[in-house]
Amino acid sequence: MNSSKPPQVPRFAEKLLSFGLPARVREPILGDLAEEYLLDILPQQGIWKGHYWYYKQAIRSLCIYAWREEDGAMAFFWSIVSFVCVIVIVVGVDFSTFTTKLSALTWLLDLRSFGFVLIPALGFAWAATSKNTLLLSFKLVFSEPTDISQEQVQEACRFLRIFGNTCLVMGGIGALLGAMVVLQNLASLTTPSKLESISLAVIAFFYGICLKLLFYTAEHKLRHSEMDNDL
Amino acid sequence: MANKESYLGEFEHIVLLSLIRLGDNAYGTSIRQVIEERIHRDVSIGALYATLERLEKKGLVNSRIGESTAERGGRAKRYFHVTAVGKRMLQDTRNSLEIMWEGLNLRSFLTVLDK
């Protein structure tokens, strides 16, 4: 029995292209690359050179559309990467001695504060839309929305807007709780456990702002895809 | 005075000529291949589509969605053809280039450089 699979294009490169290319050219470009790869490149040059060829095409094409599509997927990706880099540099580098202090980053990573912001926000956004919209929104941000109607894209945008706004509100509530703890315990503020709880509340506000920024960008990426489909 | 839009860029010129050469079979892969075969220029598919979209915005090219095949992963082809405006622009560019080349002979100049 022959168990060998039929040849396929490099999956990761194809995913990158699906994510980075605007919807109006995604299907013809992926189809053209698949046709040339499977019919010409792979039989003539073999799998390694074939992969090299496909990845070269993918990276060169993505670079071109990254500069052309200001609100597109690549801009979304790079905005997240640059945001994380800025946070790491600001918090993780001691500018007085120009040394890294990665331990300082650990206080920014607090699962309780993250959960305090994210879980209720997810619940509120789900309640305001639907489970299907929730799943569709994440699918649209990270994959190709070619077979999706305008109404579905608009509904996904609404979900992301509610999600982002609720994250911001939950972050604000976290900071408010921190302020309440301060006011109720003015006399014993030096207690380490009290100071820690205030710090966590402020971090919740930080997470709220970060998540709002993330979902705001994701919403605008979907709006851009929607405009692409209109062309 | 002619504005910038009335001129064809070098690559735009090449792409339009490829479309005319391919006739009804001009789509991404075939255009890329004809450019590579004739002038040995390896163009990325993204650069080609970016140029085709620009030409389409200028009204020099039209496109239509064609058939899909299994080796394309079920994805449809996008066929391009040159519009009447595009053909006129090609002819104008050719006329301009021929006027500029008239009476020039680079052969003697290149021979001096080779020495």
Helices and strands, with pairings:
The complex is a heterodimer of chains A (231) and B (115).
Chain A: H1 11-20, H2 23-68, H3 73-92, E1 93-94, E2 99-100, H4 103-106, H5 111-128, H6 131-142, H7 150-184, H8 192-230
Antiparallel strand pairs in A: 1-2
Chain B: H1 10-22, H2 28-39, H3 45-57, E1 61-68, E2 76-82, H4 84-101, H5 107-114
Antiparallel strand pairs in B: 1-2
Overview of the molecule:
The complex is a heterodimer of chains A (231) and B (115). Helix content of chain A is 80%, strand content 2%. Chain A has helices at 11-20, 23-68, 73-92, 103-106, 111-128, 131-142, 150-184, 192-230; strands at 93-94, 99-100. The radius of gyration of chain A is 23 Å and the shape is elongated. Helices cover 56% and strands 13% of the residues of chain B. Chain B contains five helices and two strands; from the N terminus they run H-H-H-E-E-H-H. Chain B has a two-stranded antiparallel ribbon with strand order 1-2. The longest helix of chain B has 18 residues, at 84-101. At the A-B interface, helix 2 of A face helix 2, helix 3 and strand 2 of B.
Keywords:
heterodimer, A: 231 residues, mainly alpha, two-stranded antiparallel sheet, 2 strands, 80% helix, 2% strand, B: 115 residues, alpha+beta, two-stranded antiparallel ribbon, 5 helices, 56% helix, 13% strand
**Secondary structure category of chain A:** mainly alpha
Give the chain pair forming the largest contact, with residue counts. A-B, 25 and 21 residues
In helices, the fraction of residues of chain A equals: over 70%
- The spatial strand order of the largest sheet of chain A comes to 1-2
Provide the gyration radius of chain B in Å: 17 Å
| Largest sheet features of chain A | 2 strands, antiparallel
Q: Which sequence of SSEs, written as H and E, runs from N to C of chain B?
A: HHHEEHH
Query: Low-confidence parts of chain B, pLDDT < 50 over ≥5 residues?
Result: none
By helix and strand content of chain B, what is the structural category? alpha+beta
Biggest beta sheet attributes of chain B: 2 strands, antiparallel
Number of strands of chain A: 2
